[in-house]
Amino acid sequence: MPKPDSLQGSLDLLVLKILSRRPRLHGYAIMSAIQGTSAEVLRVEEGSLYPALHRMEEAGWIRAEWIVKDTGRRARIYELTTAGKKQLAAEESRWEAVTSAVNRVLRMA
Amino acid sequence: MSLWSRIRNLVRGDGLSREIDEELQSHIEEAIEQGRDPADARRSFGSALQRREESRDIRLVPWLDSLRADAVFGWRQLMKRKATSAAAILSLALAIGACTSAFRLIDALLLRPLPVANPERLYVVAFEDLGADGKTQIYDSCSYPMFRQMRSAARGRAELIAISYADRSDLTYGSDLAMEKAYRQFVSGWMFGAFGLRPAAGRLLTENDDDKPGASPYAVLSYDYWTRRFGQDRNVIGRTFRMGDTHFEIAGVLAEGFTGTETGTLTDIFLPMAMKNPRTLASPNNFWLRTMVQLKPGVAAEPVHQMLSATYRAAEEERAKSFSAIDRRREQARREKFLLEPAGSGRSNLQRYYRSALTALGILVALVLLIACANVANLMTAQAAARAREMALRISIGATRWRLAQLVLMESIWLAFAATAIGGLFAWWAAPFIAGMIDSPDNPARLKLPADWRVLGFGLALALGVTFVLGLGPALRASSVRPASVLKGGEDPHSRRRLMHALIAVQIAFCFVVHFAAGLFSATFDRLSHQPTGFSAERILNLEAVAQRPQPPVYWEQALQHLRAVPGVETAGLTVWPLMSGESAVGDISIDDGAPSEVYSDFLNVSPGWIDTMRIPFLGGRDFVASDVNPAVAIVNQSFTRQYFDGENPIGKWFERVGPADARSRFQVVGFVRDARSRDDMRRPIRPTAYVPFQSYVPSQSIDAKGAFQPMGRGTFVVRTSSANPLALASILRREVPNARAEIRVSNIRTQTEIDQAHTVRERLLAMLGVFFAGIALLLAGVGLYGVLDYSVLLRRKEIGIRMAIGAQAGGIARLVAVDVLSMVAAGALGGIVLGLASVRYIESLFFQVKATDPAMLAIPSLTIVAAALLAALPAVIHAVRIDPVSMLRSE
C-alpha cells in the first residue's frame, strides 16, 4: 500500500479538494473521505493529518469551528476559505503539471 | 493575520493544548464508533504528547511560547521563595534606585546638552592659574572690553556671546512696596539668534539692543517665569518693571525649553548687555561675565583657541600698563593659562563645585549596586546547586542547553526588572530630594530633573546589565550541566563554592572602599564644620537692606538705633554684608610708608556694637564710638597683627591703606580682636582683617569731593535676638526698618547659622550619603557572607557529621567552616585597601585636613568590616558545631 509520504505535498491538495466538494467536515470524516474516494488506495495517517489541518488553518486556507454533534460530543469541523479556494486552484494546476510531466516521461522513455 | 493569531494563541496556551487534545480525542472516538479497534485507533496517533506539541508549534510562535513558559516558570520559582526573592529584589531596588538617582543628578547637572542649536559647538573662555595655596584654580570671569576685543578677533570663525553671572535681584512691577525677586542675566542680544531660540510671544533681543549703552531698556522673560509669575498672560508684552534705577519694558517671552546657560539656575529675565551700568561696561578691571564661544560650522576649536589666547594676552598687557607695581607683581606670579572649555551642557559654578562630589557618589552607589548583585548572584548560585538535578533531568529528556540558559536567565530578568521598577520609583523621589539638599534658602539650586528617555534608557541599560551580571554565571553553569555525573550525585561540589567565595572577596573589597570613602567624607565634614569661625552665629539674624538712592550713613545709623529698641532684640549692629556671605572687599596695607604688602587684607565697615553683637572677643583696646571720625580708626584681628606688627600688641599703631594710583589713607588701631572668619571659603586660613567705621575717610570709597561721607546704597543690620529662633522676629524687623527710615528697605533676611551651614552643604551631603551607603553596603555584604557560610555548612554537613563522629572538637569544626571564608574576607579587605588608596587621589580635592594614609582612616573601616564579618559568620558556625552526627548520618 502506498504511503502518503510517497505522494509528496499532495495531502494539502487532497484535503482542500475534499473540503471544496463537501464543506464542514471534521478530521475523521476528511480522513475517511480520502480513503473512500480513493477506493482504499490512499490512506492518511492521523499523525500527518492534524498538523496539516492546523498548518492550513494558520495559513488561512481553511477555517475551523466547534459544533456539537447529535451524540452530544463536540467536534471541530473545517471549511474552505476564499484564500483556500485560490490555493486549491493553484495546487490543482501544479498537480496537473507534475502528473502530465511524469506521464510524458513514462510514455517517451 | 496569521502571525497575530499565533501570538494571540500564546496567551491562551493551556486552552490551546486542551483544544488540540479534545480534537484528537473526538477523532479517536469517531474511529471507534466506526468500528475500529480502540487500541489500534489510539496507537495510530503515536505519542499523543508529540502530536500535541507538533500542532501547538504550528499554531503559535514556538520561541515566544518557550519564552512565555520560562517567564511563568521563573516567576513561580521566585514566588516559591517569597522572602528570599523579596529580599533580593529590595536590595537590588535600593541599589538601582540610588544609581538612577545619581545618574539623574549627574545627567541634569553635567551631561545633558543645553536646548540650543548645535550645543556641541559651544565653548566657554576660562582661565587657569596657581592660587595662593599653590593649587591650580579655574575661573571664567571676563570684562566687557576684553570680550569685545575677542569677539572682533574671532569674527567669521566663531560667534562670541557675553553672558553675565545670573543673580537674584529685586524688581517691582508696581510700587516699591511690591518688591519681588527674580534671576536675571545680562546677555548679548545676538545670543537668541545664535542659539536658534524662538519667542513664545513678542520679540527676542537682537544685536541692535546692544548698540548704545543704556538705549535699549527691553527685557525678555523665560517661559518658566512667564508661566509662574503671569500664568502665560499674553498682555504682559509692553508691561514695565523697575530694577534698580532703570525701567524695563517686557519685549517678549522665550519659547519653552531654554532657561539660561548657567546649569542649576533658571534665569527668569534676560536683559541686554548694553543696559548694564556704563561704568562697568567700560571698565577693563571689572570681571563680571562669561564669554561663550560658538564655533562656526566646520571650524576647529584649537586655532580659535590660539587666536583668542593671543588677543587676550595683548589686552592684558595693555591693561597692565595702568597697574601699580604691586598689582603687576601679583599678575606675574599668577602665570595664567587661557582655556577654551566645552560648554555644551552649560556652564555654572554649581557644576564645578559638585562635579567631583557627584562623580564620587556615583561611583559609591555603583559599588553598592555591585555588592547587591554579588549577593543575589550568590543566592542564585546556591539555588542553582539545589536545582542541578532538575537541570540534569531536563537535559536528559531533551531540553537544549540554550533553553536551560534561557530558563535561568528569565529568572534574573524578573529580578532585575522588578528591582528596576521599584528602584525607579525610589529615584523618582530621591533625586529631587537630594537636589533639594544642595539648596541654600537664599540661593535655591533650580535644577531641571526631567524623567525622560535618557533616564529611562539608563534604567533599562542598568536592568539589562544587572540581568547579565546576575544571570550569566548561573545560566552558563546550568547549560553546561553533565546529566550523567549530576544524576549520580558526583559533581565537584567545590567549584560552586570557589565562585561564591570569590564573590565574597569582591564584595568585601567594594564594601571597604565605600566605608573608606565614607570615613574620609565624614572626617572632612567633621573637621570643616568644627573649623572655628571666631564669632557666635547663635540667634543672629542678618537683614540685608537696600536704599533705592544711596543714603548717608547717619540715616542707616538711625534705622539701627530704632531696631535696637524693638522688643526681642538683644543687640544689633550695622555692616555692609553678613560675615561669610561670600562678599568681601580687599585692600593693600603699607606700614610706615613702605611698599604695600603682597598679602591681601579684608576691609569691612562696621558700626559701633557690631563686634559685640557678633561676640568677637576683644583682646585689647576698645570698640568704635560714634565720635570715631577723625583721625580714622580701625580694629584689627590677630592675623593682621601677625602679618604687619610681628604679633605685637597693635593698639595705638598706624597703618596705611593703599588705593589706586598709590593714594594712601592712614588708620590708627584702637581695638584688637580675635580672628573671625569673614570669607566664605572654610578651607583657607582667616585673612588679615581691618574693621573700620562707616564714617571714615577711605580713598575712593566713602568720601566724595566735598568731604561728605559717601552715601550707602546697601547695608546689613545684624541682630541678635533674645528668643531661640531668630526668624520669629523676621517679619517684625522687616517692617520696622522702613518705619525708621522710609528710604531703606529690607531685601533679604538670613540667619547666620544658615549662612555658615551653606558652606558645608556639599561636605554634609557627601558625609550623609557616604555613611548611608556604607551602612547599606555593610548590611548587604554581611547578609551575603551569612548566606554563603550557611550554604557551605549545609553542603558539608555530611563531612562535618563524620568528623564529629570520629572525634573532632567544636573548635576544629568552627575553624573548618570559617577559615576559608574568613580568609576571603581578609583577602577582600586587603584588596579594598589597595583599591581605596589607589582611587582616593581622584577625590582628594573634596577632603579637608584629612589624609587617606592616616592609619585611623584605614583601621576604622577594616575593623568595622571584620567585626561585621565575624558577626555574620557566627550563626553558621554555631549551626555547624551543633550538628548532631548521629541524626545526620542516619538521615543519609
Annotated CATH architecture of chain A: Orthogonal Bundle
Q: Rounded to an integer, what's the Rg of chain A over CA atoms?
A: 15 Å
Q: What is the general shape of chain B?
A: elongated
Percent range for β-strand residues of chain A? 5-15%
Helix-and-strand structural type of chain A: alpha+beta
Please report the number of helical segments of chain A.
4
Largest sheet of chain A: 3 strands, antiparallel
**Total number of distinct structural domains of chain B:** 5
Radius of gyration of chain B from CA coordinates: 37 Å
> What oligomeric state best describes the polypeptide chains here?
heterodimer
Briefly characterize the structure.
In chain A, 59% of the residues lie in helices and 15% in strands. Chain A has helices at 10-21, 27-37, 46-59, 82-108; strands spanning 25-26, 62-68, 74-80. In chain A, helix 1 packs across helix 2 (27-37).
